[in-house]
Amino acid sequence: MSSLPIAVTCGDPAGVGPELIEKWLQSNPSLASEVVIIGPNSWLEKLPLSAKQKYAVGDSSYQIQPGKPDKQGSAIALAAMETAAKGAREGQFRAVVTGPINKKAFAEIGYPFPGQTEFFADRWKGEAVMAFAGGKLTVGLVTRHLPLKEVPAKLNSEEIRRTVLALIHLRKKMGDQQPRIAVCGLNPHAGENGLLGEEDEKIIRPAIDRLQREGHSVTGPLSADTVFYRHLQGEFDAVVAMYHDQGLTALKTIDFSTAANLSLGLKLIRTSPDHGTGYEIAGRGKADVGSLTSAIKLAHLLSL
Question: Into which CATH architecture does domain 1-126+266-304 fall?
Fold first, then answer.
């Protein structure tokens, strides 16, 4: 499997995805043979790659206008995702790295998913765990793109367990023999023994107790206001957060230019940069390639 290339999609062509790919190719010429770039033909023609390393999607006349998204660009980004997902499923690619998309613009063209994680889970028939790694922190999310008011009702012990096990598998691939996983509580101070909410004791703790009985090094529920500091100090190898901003506020403060997004728990590997389309800087050469570099490195590591 490791001899197959990694598919890299352009993301929204009007965003920073195309220029990040160009920067990565310039910085990593010796690794270019390991990727297949998927995007609009007018852009692909300019890349220093062989014909077999390019896959054009969409109308061949389409011209990228940085910072000016449109429905045609969204359609190209979606077509690139479909091509990558199908190619990986059929054994053409060993992993997929996706460029950033505009979720609202995707919804306007009929895209039914809240993000790319859910798209690949659907196309590859699995249940994904959204996680982030590549910098100083490793973070997994139990729930993903939900309004905050819906989070408590969506929490259950099985999803917490699945997230922990996915992070254990990831950290072992990254070199830890016995990964130490910290699990956040949902409420302030992990509920203060029920004073500030019952979810921590009734939902989160039973999942942790079961994992501990199975021999895993799992600690919690812990107060989210200190657990990331403890992770940074080396006490833990990864943190499980209950909802999106609980985990990603800390991660993006520390690792904005170094972490990558991973869809764990699927039969195939998908990673992406941990940032959005960056329309305001697209085409100006200001976009930081660090997160894309981490995404490609992790896709390589996880698909070995």
Answer: 3-Layer(aba) Sandwich (3.40)
